[in-house]
Each structure stands twice: as C-alpha cells, then as structure tokens.
Specification:
Functions as an E3 ubiquitin ligase. It catalyses: S-ubiquitinyl-[E2 ubiquitin-conjugating enzyme]-L-cysteine + [acceptor protein]-L-lysine = [E2 ubiquitin-conjugating enzyme]-L-cysteine + N(6)-ubiquitinyl-[acceptor protein]-L-lysine. InterPro entries: ARM-like, ARM-type_fold, ARM_PUB, PUB22/23/24-like, RING-Ubox_PUB, Ubox_domain, Znf_RING/FYVE/PHD. This protein folds into 2 domains: 105 residues, 2-Layer Sandwich (Herpes Virus-1); 234 residues, Alpha Horseshoe (Leucine-rich Repeat Variant). Strands 2-1-3 form a 3-stranded antiparallel beta sheet. With 446 residues, the protein is mainly α. Helix 5 packs across helix 6, helix 5 packs parallel to helix 8 and helix 20 packs across helix 23.
C-alpha cells in the first residue's frame, strides 16, 4: 500500500514538472526510481545523506527529524542511532545527477553539488576573527563576518545549532556592547542585533553583554531612531531579555524614552512579528512583581501614549496571537485606577471583551473576564450606576458567562464569573438581551 501511494505521488510530481517546463502531459510518464526518493518526503533527493543504520535520506528532511523534532532514531527502522550526524552519500548523489541529466527532456534538472555543513572549527575561526577585528575597531570586517554567520545559520537547522553551540551569542553580544560606546557605529550595531535574533533563546552568558547600561541605552536608541528592520530586531532581542531576567526590568525602564519607544511600535506597527514582540515586552513590564508605586509609574507612562485606546482598536480584528498578548497588556494596564478609567470611558472596551469570550482561547477568555470583573468593581467604587452591566448584557455577555460556568474554567475565573452573574442578574430583567439559540437549552446554575 505504501508503495502504491509513493508511485501515485511520484506520478503527480512528474506531471507538475512537465507542466512547469511546457511539456505535454500525454508523454510516457517517468517514475523517479525508488532508490532516489527520500523515505520521509518521498521526493527526489537533492542532498542524499546516510545515517548510522545505513539508510539514505534527503538532508533537509532527516535534519528536521533529528534536530528540529529531537528524534534519535532511524525514521524507517526505528532503531536508535549511534550517531545523529548524517554522512553525505556521494555515490547516490552522482547517480541522481546522472539520472536527471538523462531525463532532462522531462523537466528534471541536474541537482547542484550541495554545500558541506558548517563545522565547529569553522564557526570558532569566524568568531575569533570577529573578536580580533573588534579589538582593532574594524567595523567593515565585523559586518562582513556577521553577515556570513547569518547566511550559514539560515542554511539549515543543523548549521544554526552548530553556530549557537559554539558561543556565537556571547561573542555577538559583547561585540554589540563594545561598539555601543561610539555614535558612529549605527550600521554595525543593527547588523549585530540581526545576528543575535538568529541565536535565540539567549543563554546567561549572552545576556551579560546586553544587560550593560550602555547596551540598553543603544537598544533603546535603535528602537527610537533605527531602520524598520533595526527596530524590529531590537524589540525581538529586548523581548527575550525582559522575559528572562525580571530584576533587570527596572534598569531598562530607567533609560530615557524606553517606555515611549516600545509603545510606539504598537501604535505604529511595522509587521506582525514586531507587534507580537512589542506586546510581550510591554506585558513583562506592566505585570511585574515589584512595588506598586513603581508599577503605577510605568503603567501611567504607557497610558499617556494612548496605548489603552490602541489596544481596543486592535482587538476588534486581530490574530489569535496578537489578541492574547493585547488582552494581557490591557489587563496589566487595568491593574491601576488610571488604567481602569481609560478602559471604562472607552466605548469599545465592553463589546470587544464580550466578543472575545469563548472565541479565541482559554487565556484570552481569562484575561477578558478579569478585566470585566475589575471594571465592574471600579464602576461601583466611583458610583457609576449600572451602565457597564447593561452594555455587557446587551451584547450577549450573560449567556457566555453561564456557559463558562458549565464548560469549565480555572477556579479563580469561575469565582469572578459567578460574581459578575450575580451582580448582572439584578439588571437582566430591565435589559433587552441578545439571546443566542446556542444557549437556550442550557440550565442556569443559580
């Protein structure tokens, strides 16, 4: 059965290739020999390598199996591998190249000779050159070597792991720190940040070079004035730093303009990756376990940028990933009265929060419930009447909260749901609610 599936797939691939080169499909079909097809992808192998079990695979497929998926067995036999380093199968590669040449009229091009994977010796040599040129202040030479390392890291997951394992993060971070002292090194600093994003997540040694006051100042400067790619890479690095070392949060926030630069990346988005990283970095700042006064000061600075209003606008229509992070940041902003007031006065807040209940993810639902619960208590504290309850009920919150009690959620969330239902049930009779047919047969739990 497996053989039949492989043959059908090979025939389809052959037809696709013919169409691409403008050949007629009614020619006699050419089947790729079984020996030339990777057992994992079932495609013609471009870089055949052999494992310790003696079976040949295409390098891209087997390295994904070994290095990305973390397997240490042979994909076909299931036998444990004595070595996870694939060895090039030059014989099979030459046979495939000859077969491609013979079948060129059917659209098969001769596969190029693949580049050999990078070795630890090569990585160490390049890093040593960076250190040497750093000492001499050779900016152009450092840029050249970092670009070369970046290209190698993109070649394959194996090359990337080899680069990371040989201390690239440490060298790049300390080189970044060294060049941060000169205002004339903007280009090399952005290139170094780009290289650092390829060795994420950082180990402790890498972070030591980035947590210095000068490095933090430079990262903030790039966040404010760098190119689009530079700002993107800066926030990716910053997100990693803030999530890994909580005690250092204060040092970053003390850099002039740091809060405003982060908020600007959300207010004026570059791309989805940058927005996600910016929101996560902000989340780590507005929800720390530090003193309330310090947290209040930071949140107030974010509120002054208009971040609360922007988050509500984003939440109207955004991806799941952005939604979860935006709700997390909004919940952090609503941990002080100033943030609650901003959210309470915004016409989008309640409809958006109710909309996200049970529609995005469990964590999005929990954040939404917590914000609604805090807003409800805030409304009572300021004597605001029952406007929030009425608005929430009108957009269908009651039915969703009842369902939340029945389908399950964490105990803390259930407690808050129960409090909201008890308070809003008193108002429900005076409000024309949007009843959903999906919930009409549910039994009330109170």
């Amino acid at each position: 059965m497996l053989s039949a599936i492989r043959n059908r797939k090979a025939a389809r691939n052959g037809n696709k290739i013919k169409k691409l080169v403008g050949l007629k499909v009614d020619h006699e079909p050419v089947t790729i020999p079984e020996l030339f097809r990777c057992p994992i992808s079932l495609e013609l192998m471009k870089d055949p390598v052999i494992l310790s079990t003696g079976i040949t695979y295409d390098r891209e497929s087997v390295e994904k199996w070994l290095y990305e998926d973390g397997n240490h067995t042979c994909p076909v036999t299931g036998v444990s591998l004595s070595s996870i380093d694939p060895v090039p199968n030059h014989t099979i590669r030459r046979m495939i190249q000859e077969w491609c040449v013979e079948n060129k009229s059917y659209g098969f091009e001769r596969i190029p000779t693949p580049r050999a994977p990078v070795s630890s010796f090569q990585v160490a040599e390049m890093l040593a050159r960076i250190v040497s040129m750093r000492g001499k202040g050779n900016v152009e030479g450092v840029v050249e070597m970092v670009v070369k390392i970046k290209d190698l890291a993109r070649e394959s997951e194996r090359d990337k792991k080899c680069i990371v394992a040989n201390g690239s993060g440490l060298v790049l971070s300390h080189t970044f720190e060294a060049f941060s002292y000169s205002q004339e090194n903007a280009s090399v600093l952005e290139v170094l940040l780009s290289g650092l994003t390829l060795v994420l997540p950082f180990d402790q040694e890498t972070m030591t070079g980035l947590w210095s006051n000068q490095s933090l100042y430079t990262i903030v400067k790039i966040l404010k004035f760098g190119t689009l790619s530079g700002r993107r890479n800066a926030v990716l690095v910053l997100k990693e730093l803030l999530s890994s070392d909580k005690p250092k949060l204060h040092e970053f926030t003390m850099v002039e303009g740091s809060i405003e630069a982060l908020a600007k990346l959300v207010m004026e988005p570059i791309d989805a990756t940058t927005t996600n990283a910016s929101l996560l970095a902000i989340y780590h700042i507005v929800t720390p376990s530090n003193s309330f006064d310090q947290k209040k000061t930071l949140i107030t600075r974010f509120l002054a940028t208009g971040l609360c209003e922007k988050l509500n606008e984003m939440l109207v229509d955004c991806t799941r990933s952005v939604c979860e992070k935006a709700l997390g940041v909004l919940e952090g902003l609503c941990s002080i009265d100033e943030g609650l007031d901003k959210a309470y006065m915004n016409a989008l807040t309640v409809p958006v929060l109710v909309k996200k209940l049970l529609r995005v993810s469990d964590i999005a639902t929990e954040f939404s419930i917590l914000i609604l619960w805090r807003l409800s208590k805030y409304e009572k504290s300021i004597g605001g009447g029952e406007d929030l309850a009425i608005e929430a009920l009108q957009v269908g919150a009651f039915q969703k909260l009842v369902l939340l009690l029945q389908v399950g959620s964490c105990s803390k969330t259930k407690e808050k749901v129960g409090e909201l239902l008890k308070g809003w049930n008193m108002v429900r009779g005076r409000v024309e609610c949007i009843e959903s047919m999906d919930f009409k047969n549910l039994k009330r739990s109170f």
